[in-house]
Amino acid sequence: MAITHFTPQLIGRGDGRSAVLAAAYRHCAKMEFEAEGRTVDYSNKRGMIHEEFLVPADAPAWLRTMIADRSVAGASEAFWNKVEAFEKRADAQFAKEFIIALPVELTSEQNIALMRQFVVEQVLSRGQVADWVYHDEPGNPHVHMMTTLRPLTEDGFGPKRVAVIGEDGQPLRMKSGKIAYRLWAGDKQEFLEQRNGWLDLQNQHLALNGHEIRVDGRSYAERGIDVVPTTHIGVAAKAIQRRAEREGRDPNLERLRVFNENRAETLRRIQRRPEIVLDMISREKSV
């Protein structure tokens, strides 16, 4: 059923990660990694069914020229290589990546339409580049979307921190008299706005395509449902678990242990109070 998984993470040099390598893997493509003078090739990787590299309406001429005659993966390759070349610090951050679960109730075409609307309303409207790839694993359709951390300028990229502007159009100042700054790519409040925008859009598209199910971003506690929440353990952890079970071994992963303990506790609560199931279902479907 439709779920609310919408998780951000930063891709940066300080963690030993590369935006180019991440893009190549997600696009299932062959790319030149200019920083190290080598080629990476993930063209044999399977699961990608759609990809887009989109820029805001007011994107500078250099960016439009750079990607004009390239494929989607080619545009991604050129752009993220430029970002990495611009960032000089050893601990530089290159991109923010969102991992977004798509509703299994929708077809691939419907999910693409849903994602396109979200990108226009919540990413391009903020002046950010959106490099997104739709992967369709069995029972787990999802998107990897990489977005920019700096504003685009006529010459390249602007600062990651920008002044907070007041209602009078002037920079706000703290009690010390210093100008107040914020992250251009957004703080926690803006992330929550994006997440809520995604949940609203998901429900709109589910309704438009004739589905009664709805997603709700509130926790079980906030909805008054007496079950124990589980944490997302990821595709890699599930693969380790399945492989260990086939081989008769203990996967020995802490997050798997906690996940299974919480799931067992929820089962015990449902056995004591079966009406909890109705609470859970009736919040998301007409019953």
Write the topology of this structure:
Layout lengths: L5 E7 L6 H9 L2 E4 L4 E4 L6 E7 L6 H7 L4 H15 L6 E9 L6 H15 L7 E8 L2 E9 L12 E3 L17 E3 L4 H21 L25 H13 L7 H19 L2 H8 L5
Helix pairs in contact: 1-3, 4-5
How would you characterize the overall build of this protein?
The protein has 287 residues and is of the alpha+beta class. The protein has 2 domains: 6-162 and 189-208, 2-Layer Sandwich (BirA Bifunctional Protein, domain 2), CATH 3.30.930; 234-282, no CATH class. The protein has helices at 19-27, 61-67, 72-86, 108-122, 188-208, 234-246, 254-272, 275-282; strands spanning 6-12, 30-33, 38-41, 48-54, 93-101, 130-137, 140-148, 161-163, 181-183. A 5-stranded antiparallel β-sheet has the order 1-5-7-6-4, with helices on both faces. Strands 2-3 form a two-stranded antiparallel sheet. The chain has a two-stranded antiparallel sheet with strand order 8-9. The longest helix is centred in the C-terminal third of the chain and has 21 residues, at 188-208. The two termini are 16 Å apart.
